[in-house]
Each structure stands twice: as C-alpha cells, then as structure tokens.
C-alpha cells in the first residue's frame, strides 16, 4: 500500500502594533496583511475548538488555506508560542498566550494515509475473503457427497463384475475338467456325465467365453483404478474440508 506523509514547518509572523512600530509605506501594508491573516487564523482555531461550528473559514486567507491540512486535517500539529517577560511587550505576550491556549484545545485524530485505489482494493479483498470462507465449504460438502455416491456405485458395480468373473471361472474349470477326462464315451467321468446340459452346450464355445472373461477382467481393472483414484480424491477433499472447518 502507498502511504503518503507531509511535514509542514511554518514560521508565523508576529502581530505588530502599528502605534509602537511606527511603520509606514510598504512595511505598514505588509503588517496590516499579516495581522489580518493572523486574525483569520484565530477564527479558524476558535471554530475547530468549538466543535459546534458547521463551517470552518479556511478560505478567508492564504495562510489558513495553506494550514488547512495541518490544523483540521489528518495530521498532528505542534505549535510553539514565543513570549517575552518585558513589560514593554505585556499586551503582545497576553494575546499570544490566549492564542496558544485556544490552539492547544484542537483535537485531531490522525490515521495513516493510503492511496484510495489500494484502500478500495484491500476492502474488496476482505469482502471476497469473507464470502469465500462460507461458500467453498458448502461446495466442498456437496462435492464430497457426489464423490461418495460415485464411489458407492463403483463399489457395487465392482462386486457384480466379481461375481460374474467367479461364475465364468467356475464354468471354465468345469469345462476343462470334462475335456481332460473326455476322449471317449466310455471313459467319461460320472461328474462329466452329470454336468448340466447348459454347460455341455457352452463347452464347444469355450473360446467365446474366454474372450468375454478377458473383457470383463479388463473392465474390472478399469473400475478398480477409477475406484482407487476416486478414493484418493475424496480423501484429499475431506482433508481440505477439515482445514476449512478448523479455520
């Protein structure tokens, strides 16, 4: 974030009584303008201290316009009042002390200056982070439920394929046993003679059964791989969801 700071060092001219100085010409005009600016500055300080005034007359003089940020802006102000103990300057000393007493009652609450664009971006980031802290948790729960349903479906399909594989394996073993004991009608074993008619019909088509068995086996392997990958993904999302719930 871009932080901006300024330091104003202002040397205020002292108020001069024209009757004492005896100034004339250009110096008299300058003293008049200085006294007018200091009077306007006193009015600004009084308005700031009052707290009830809705208008601060910063624009009434060049001096108050320059000091606007220092007096009532986002700043900390330090003012030094110079007084003298001489009896000759009694009136000026009294006026300066009153001036300083009003100025010390100004209360400014300074904050670090930031670039408006950066501050706005920071606000939007906080808002998005706050919203993202709730929405993703709901999405993760729904995603995990969907993944769990998919895993259950894959497990059920895997069980069915396993049952079919076992059944085909039993039929294949029975067919191979009949072929081994076969060779003649007289040497046929009783178990082969008692073989169900459906199995004896399927025996000549052993090649087709083997091909189907291989296809089922390949399909089973694919499902197992998908099942394991879904399990890993679900475990990862579960860990992420736990982290979100903890934070």
Automatic annotation (TrEMBL):
<dbReference type="InterPro" id="IPR027417">
    <property type="entry name" value="P-loop_NTPase"/>
</dbReference>
<dbReference type="GO" id="GO:0008017">
    <property type="term" value="F:microtubule binding"/>
</dbReference>
<dbReference type="GO" id="GO:0005874">
    <property type="term" value="C:microtubule"/>
</dbReference>
<feature type="domain" description="Kinesin motor">
    <location>
        <begin position="1"/>
        <end position="106"/>
    </location>
</feature>
<keyword id="KW-0493">Microtubule</keyword>
<comment type="similarity">
    <text>Belongs to the TRAFAC class myosin-kinesin ATPase superfamily. Kinesin family.</text>
</comment>
<dbReference type="GO" id="GO:0003777">
    <property type="term" value="F:microtubule motor activity"/>
</dbReference>
<keyword id="KW-0547">Nucleotide-binding</keyword>
<feature type="region of interest" description="Disordered">
    <location>
        <begin position="172"/>
        <end position="247"/>
    </location>
</feature>
<dbReference type="GO" id="GO:0005524">
    <property type="term" value="F:ATP binding"/>
</dbReference>
<dbReference type="InterPro" id="IPR001752">
    <property type="entry name" value="Kinesin_motor_dom"/>
</dbReference>
<protein>
    <submittedName>
        <fullName>Kinesin-like protein</fullName>
    </submittedName>
</protein>
<dbReference type="GO" id="GO:0007018">
    <property type="term" value="P:microtubule-based movement"/>
</dbReference>
<feature type="compositionally biased region" description="Basic residues">
    <location>
        <begin position="237"/>
        <end position="247"/>
    </location>
</feature>
<keyword id="KW-0963">Cytoplasm</keyword>
<keyword id="KW-0067">ATP-binding</keyword>
<dbReference type="Pfam" id="PF00225">
    <property type="entry name" value="Kinesin"/>
</dbReference>
<keyword id="KW-0175">Coiled coil</keyword>
<keyword id="KW-0206">Cytoskeleton</keyword>
<dbReference type="InterPro" id="IPR036961">
    <property type="entry name" value="Kinesin_motor_dom_sf"/>
</dbReference>
<dbReference type="InterPro" id="IPR019821">
    <property type="entry name" value="Kinesin_motor_CS"/>
</dbReference>
<dbReference type="InterPro" id="IPR027640">
    <property type="entry name" value="Kinesin-like_fam"/>
</dbReference>
<feature type="compositionally biased region" description="Basic and acidic residues">
    <location>
        <begin position="207"/>
        <end position="227"/>
    </location>
</feature>
<feature type="compositionally biased region" description="Low complexity">
    <location>
        <begin position="189"/>
        <end position="198"/>
    </location>
</feature>
<keyword id="KW-0505">Motor protein</keyword>
